[in-house]
Design brief:
about 200 residues; mainly alpha; Tetracycline Repressor, domain 2; about 0% strand; elongated
Amino acid sequence: MVGRPVNHQRRAELLDAAVEYAAEYGFSELSWRPVAAALGVSPTTLVHHFGTKEQMLEAILARLRERIFEIASDTLGEQPDLATAARAAWTWSSDPQRQAEFRLFFAVYGRALQAPDLFAGFLEHVVADWMSLLRDAQGPHTEPATATLVIATIRGLLLDLLATGDRDRVQNAAESFLASLEHTAQPPAPALGTVTSSTPSPA
């Protein structure tokens, strides 16, 4: 007997609601009954839309990554250079309204490192997507090492902020890092006495 087809719009609504639940209650509470109760549906409804618990978990993680990346793409895609993009990324990701989402993100990150086979999709994209965004902001001639440094520094600062709540100290550290990027991005001033293209050469 063929089961009824999945309503994909309804599945998307349930998936977004499940991501919100996971962000609020944590990664360890993702089992059928508590999620179904929070979403106001039966466990059977979740099974129908997601299959197994593992498939529901994979869908939640994929949607979490997609949501973060979609907003990051909109934010960073409008920036003219790496330094400006890095500042936009920090301002957006350190917003208190994103705190629950990034707490879940780091919880998933740690779990994925312990079970890479189960979370292969997450690990495949978690750095590569951000590298692409930031390297686009760098321009074609810049080495990827700087984008790697930006990703690692911002994620480290976010972890510190989430762990300690010491926003002033972490913000000061972020500002120091971002200022160094902006300073590096500035073209060096010509040395005293250097002839520039706008200055006529002596006869």
